[in-house]
Amino acid sequence: MVAIHPFDTVRDYEVRLASKLVKDAYPASANVHFVQIDKVDPPKKSMIKYLEAEKSGLKVPEIPRVLYCYYYTNTLDFNKALVNVTVGHIITKTQLPKGVVGPFLPEDMMEWEEHCTNHPLVQAEIAKLKLPKGYSVRNDPWIYATDNANERRPLVQFFMYVLAGNGHSESNHYSLPLKFSPVFEAFTKKFIRIDYLPGGYDETTVPTQPWQEVPCVEYHPDLNGEDTTSRIVKPLLISQPEGPSFSIEGSKVKWQGWEFRVSSSAREGFVIYDVYFKGRQVFYRIALSEMTVPYGDPRAPYHRKQAFDLGDCGFGVNGNQLGLGCDCLGVIKYLDGVGIDSTGEPHVIPNTICMHEQDNGILYKHVNYRTNNAVVARKREFVVQTIATVANYEYVINVKFAVDGNIDIETRATGILSTMPIDENVKVPWGTIVGPNVMAAYHQHILSFRIDPAIDGHKNTVVYDDVVKLPTHPVKNPFGIGFVTDRKYVEKAGSVDQSPFTNRTYKIINENVINPISKTPVGYKVEIPPRQMILADKDSFNVKRAKFATEAVWVTKYNDHQLFAAGEFTNQSQRDTGLGEWANGVDPVRNEDIVVWATLGFTHIPRVEDFPVMPVETHNIHLQPNNFFTRNPALDLPQANNNFNKSQLVAGNPTKACCKNNL
Amino acid sequence: MVAIHPFDTVRDYEVRLASKLVKDAYPASANVHFVQIDKVDPPKKSMIKYLEAEKSGLKVPEIPRVLYCYYYTNTLDFNKALVNVTVGHIITKTQLPKGVVGPFLPEDMMEWEEHCTNHPLVQAEIAKLKLPKGYSVRNDPWIYATDNANERRPLVQFFMYVLAGNGHSESNHYSLPLKFSPVFEAFTKKFIRIDYLPGGYDETTVPTQPWQEVPCVEYHPDLNGEDTTSRIVKPLLISQPEGPSFSIEGSKVKWQGWEFRVSSSAREGFVIYDVYFKGRQVFYRIALSEMTVPYGDPRAPYHRKQAFDLGDCGFGVNGNQLGLGCDCLGVIKYLDGVGIDSTGEPHVIPNTICMHEQDNGILYKHVNYRTNNAVVARKREFVVQTIATVANYEYVINVKFAVDGNIDIETRATGILSTMPIDENVKVPWGTIVGPNVMAAYHQHILSFRIDPAIDGHKNTVVYDDVVKLPTHPVKNPFGIGFVTDRKYVEKAGSVDQSPFTNRTYKIINENVINPISKTPVGYKVEIPPRQMILADKDSFNVKRAKFATEAVWVTKYNDHQLFAAGEFTNQSQRDTGLGEWANGVDPVRNEDIVVWATLGFTHIPRVEDFPVMPVETHNIHLQPNNFFTRNPALDLPQANNNFNKSQLVAGNPTKACCKNNL
Are strands A614-626 and A648-649 parallel, antiparallel or unpaired? Predict the structure, then answer.
């Protein structure tokens, strides 16, 4: 077994020890109830020493493993403990102020789900539906979000659906939403009230009526009525007979000049650490930091549909067990995650991260038309993938390392739309009718990726370059066709506006290292697609809680434990305690140890084609070397040729000479 | 042999007949000199009848094959003829006004290249360089572009480079640009003058000096000094043991519910015709229409660097012979193109279009967290690819059809930067130093894709939807979180502004066909990335010649032969005779037969990493069904599973259960 590394995924025995130490610190009567346990990154200062020693093969300093535990005591007191599991003692334990709500544990949510449906008052409401024989009711527990500054109770709301009478566990209840929504207190499971949902043009609601039967739009192959034999899909096999080009030892990955570590995270899904390419340091840490999903339907209680999928529940603890040949094609290496139950007992989340190589077409090509000689190389990528299921939605996160020094951070949204009831012959301006009496409201997905750069070292600067026309001038620009770049520096912690029409690009540079060819500082470009940011009013809770969602690019001075864009505790939060505080306009960020936060937003106006299960919507952020190397860093790739790639002609296609790329 | 179809690629015997008929129409003394010959699309009106008959299995009407011929007579008279090669007569032949310059024939360009270097006045200039033994001079002929409204001669300018003394034909002359640029008259090969190129901060030039030796930055594996064995790249094989899922007969492709035709084009590379998905008509014709590449260096003669890569020379006639296992991986079907020589004799451009299937990750997924059952399907794509070499640059065009009804039009720019000399210790604000004494000027690539829609028929409308916040209102929007879409209709031929911050999306809809689920018109979305458009002054020749480059989306009323965004003849054009005339603000385009023109622009600020050969820059336009189907059209895909996909675990990775997607 490989010795544990400070960046390694938390181990089960570490979780067990931490939870035991915490439980032992309270009387049994306190009923310690855990909701999340994971490792804490070591202070960067000590990690830098550690990594330097490691690189130079020296003895590495002892760095204790520290875990955080979120847990409730006496049912409703929310606490956080930091536990040193190397020596085995609690560093601190703090009870958080009333009103701070921790992330919900998936196991608790499922228990509450059952409790809700079985509650007499909910049963009474269900009875009014007079459901046909065999039909039943299923609910999705939902984060309660925030609409009242005085609300201190941890709450959970439930959206109710009819489960069709086909007796199939995979029947699509999202196709049959109901018009009432019970609210309970979390943990105590105390009934609070039932909210009624509008079905018409406006906010008007009506008492629960007998349910009018409509067809259920099914997605499962057993139920959707599709004939899959009508499509001719022949196998397309991806194989690596000589094995993959990567090597993985513990959390350490080596591939094509890249070296980094991958670790699973209860909250973030996975984290990439200590990234080098061709022997040069480029990033210290890369991870998804937060995601908020605000909905645009203004009618109560829909105004409270604003999830924070990392802070409210956790991306890693909701990670899928990935399937060979299903979620991942080729030669696959899997990593596991670690979940817990409320007693603090760990369990494995198997195969929740997959890693593999893939071909992504042509990387570079040139043909000398004089000789017809071609040089051509293929773009090979190394993919780190995880998929989280957050109730109805699925998110696929791919971080792809390419042979030319690029990193592509790809998000794919799929799964099932969050649906609402809508009456016959009604249209609403904030949603699309996606099935009989079912509407999918417009919403936004706004993700924040935390990028902790180390471009040739830790002292970095963020600049942004606009491309602007030169004024016409009889001598300097007589034909009015000249244009130049205009560079600006981010001096203080804050954000940078988007400006696609000046081709604004954001770069992380190291002003202390000059590229000998271009005579400019070395850097990496951060390419973020220009997007609409959060639409809600500036003074709405949606925005107060998610400042990160108001701008595309943020720069802060590095601080240990400033990891989460909307703050550490987002569940029913009143305000953003993350970038809202850290991007303070005061901290110097030029030629400092900085963190860049990239906001990837997409406004989702549902299509009928997105139902009953949604084809992926794909969005990308690119990190690209920019005057970092002294020439194309992929020149050392072997030339593409068919002795190596063994491609074939379709039968009956006359063969012709392959590309000449050697003389 | 399959009977010829009106959309089929021109046949060699058709070219031979057309050129013979034209030559026979002139006295031998006229020296008919051809520069381009290809087929003309039949009038849409007759094609619609033809295609309807074809679809219903009726006898198709006789449609004559018509070819256009561009040719010079008496050396400098430029003519166009339309020839009916079915019956074998010339329909029209016209001599074009002086000043109209046709596309240059690759064969002519290479002849002029040699003529230039060998010309005594150029040799005299070369002599002043006092090149070291073994070194020689190589030139790239360049389109002359436009800076003078009175210039009527067809001209060609030459950029001169040193060819290093290594005796290797693939040595990278672009690394060693010289400071003089001869200009000749085309066809007559008459010497006009030598322009001198600035090497300093400004437009100042100096007489040719002895060449100062600097290292050549080489790209070819024989020369670049890289050790390709240092990278461990194991084979990644893509195979289809049961053959591909597509069938191709003549120009007709059938795959996964898609049906369309692919034909090669001398000017456009390839054209996609008559596109159906799942039995419904979606597009009549899709092709790249034009591309202009204006440079930002304001100094003479660089202000004349504005190529029109389709109109000035032709994308298809500069198409690469694609290599199995080099340009295309998997099971490949190739199509040939047809080029000509100046006598009108056709030749095959072999394998210039490749077609194959590929996997593009997850298409959709959902996991029911209650049962842990997953549904997951993979995104299979069918790719039509061509690659053109335009002197230094390469462009890779991929049109990818996906199983969910999406079409992704992908452009990859690679090849070698167009370089200019720069003196030691000089920096300029409009270029990047990419090697010793070599500078790559900032430039733009602005492509126009012509999309002729037929969304459930030919009467279509373009709309654009903005997402806007609802005003806060005590009853209608009490929490200030509501947002809705605001739809506008394009009524008259013209353009639509970009507006990313209102999430503006462009849709082609059919107002006569209502989606029964959403109760809204069926449509396809055209997704174009928000980009900086052409930077040059409104009244510069660069803009006058390329109006299409000023806006991202254009809509015109359909007219036969309105195919090219900047007009039919772009070489040394004075003004845009394409969209500049057709987008007239007058023609009705609502619920009419319309054409949509999508401008894909990217401003290229070269990186050192882009030299000596550039890793691809990739840009995409998406066409996506939008409330066109009544649900996800890919539900009939078989579920992904490893019996089918045969993926493998990395050796030593403990196996765990695959995804359960059947109960």
Answer: unpaired
Instruction: Return the number of other C-beta atoms located less than 10 Å from residue B496's C-beta.
Output: 18
Provide φ and ψ at B542, rounded to 5°: -55, -40
Tally of CB atoms within 10 A around B391: 20
Asked if residues B354 and B340 have their Cβ atoms less than 8 Å apart, the reply is no
Band of the pLDDT at A658, cuts 50, 70, 90?
A: very low
| Contact between chains at B387 and A394 (C-beta distance less than 8 A) | no
Beta carbons within 8 Å of A418's beta carbon, 6+ residues apart:
A159, A174, A295, A305, A391, A392, A393, A440, A441, A443
Bin B169: left if φ > 0, else alpha if -120 < ψ < 50, else beta.
Answer: alpha
Model confidence pLDDT, tens digit, residues A184-239: 999 999 999 999 999 998 999 999 999 999 999 999 999 999 988 888 899 999 99
**Taking each helix axis from N to C terminus, what angle separates B106-118 and B120-127, rounded to the nearest 10 degrees?**
60
Structural tokens at position A228: 């899959």
Count of CB pairs separated by less than 8 Å, A with B: 641
Cβ <8 Å between B480 and A539: yes
Nearest residue, CB atoms, B540 vs list A442, A479, A517: A479
* The two structure tokens encoding residue A560: 């240990």
Chain B nearest-CA residue for A257? B231
In sequence order, which residues have a C-beta less than 8 Å from that of residue A347 and are 6 or more positions away?
Answer: A338, A339, A340, A341
User: What is the number of other CB atoms lying within 10 angstroms of the CB of residue B117?
Assistant: 17
> Do B326 and A363 make contact, defined as CB atoms within 8 angstroms?
no
Find the closest chain A residue to B147 by CA distance.
Answer: A479
By three-state DSSP, how is residue B24 classified?
Answer: helix
The letter for the amino acid at B640 is: A
Q: How far apart are CA B400 and CA B408, in angstroms?
A: 5
Q: Which residue's structure tokens are 């198409």?
A: B319
Q: What is the pLDDT of residues B352-373, one digit of tens each?
A: 999 999 999 999 999 999 999 9
Nearest CA distance, B29 vs chain A (angstrom): 31
Residue B287 contacts residue B272 (beta carbons within 8 Å): yes
Would the CB atoms of B323 and A658 count as touching at under 8 Å? yes
Burial (0-12, 13-18, 19+ Cβ within 10 Å), A87: exposed
Query: Nearest CA to B211 among B174, B171, B163, B168?
Result: B163
CA distance A332 to A244: 9
Closest residue, chain B, to A365 (C-alpha): B415
In angstroms, rounded to a whole number, what is the distance separating the alpha carbons of residues B167 and B163?
Answer: 9
Is some CB atom of chain A closer than 8 A to the CB atom of B480?
yes
Distance of alpha carbon A6 from alpha carbon A66, whole angstroms: 9
> B574-591: per-residue pLDDT in tens?
999 999 999 999 999 999
SS3 at position B31: coil
- What is the rounded distance in angstroms from the CA atom of residue A36 to the CA atom of residue A267? 9
Q: Write out pLDDT tens, residues A605-624.
A: 999 999 999 999 999 999 99
Q: What is the mean pLDDT of chain A?
A: 96
Tell me, yes or no, if the pTM score tops 0.90.
yes
Q: Which amino acid is at A333?
A: K
**Residue among A140, A274, A297, A309 flagged as catalytic:** A309
- Asked if the Cβ–Cβ distance from A244 to B234 is below 8 Å, we say yes
Is the Cβ of A28 closer than 8 Å to some Cβ of chain B? no
Joined tokens for residue A203: 């906010």
H-assigned helices in B371-441: none
Question: Which residue, B605, B577, B588, B592, is CA-closest to B290?
Answer: B577
Are B302 and B441 in contact by the 8 Å Cβ rule? The answer is yes
Residue among B161, B393, B395, B506 flagged as catalytic: B393
How would you list the strands of the sheet with A191-196, edge to edge?
Answer: A136-143, A155-163, A180-185, A191-196
Mean pLDDT in residue range B539-549: 98
**E strand or H helix that includes residue A645:** helix A642-645
